[in-house]
Design goal:
- It is a single chain.
- The two termini are 12 Å apart.
- The chain has helices at residues 3-7, 11-26, 31-39.
- The chain has 56 residues and is mainly alpha-helical.
């Protein structure tokens, strides 16, 4: 996978996680959205090793 694809923010995953929080607060079906958010890399925003420099 190109380095530019790894260095970006997992935007779709974050959107799914935010939708899961919104559904949870409103009492809807939030589990599916949370799983999709994890699968699309939404939890990757919490990792600190995404510098995109000259690392192998």
């Amino acid at each position: 996978m190109p380095k530019s694809a790894k260095a970006g923010i997992p935007l779709i995953g974050i959107i799914f996680l935010l939708l899961a929080v919104f559904k949870f607060v409103n009492g809807g079906n939030w589990v599916v959205w949370a799983i999709l958010g994890c699968l699309f890399g939404g939890l990757g925003i919490f990792s600190s090793n995404r510098s995109g420099g000259d690392q192998p």
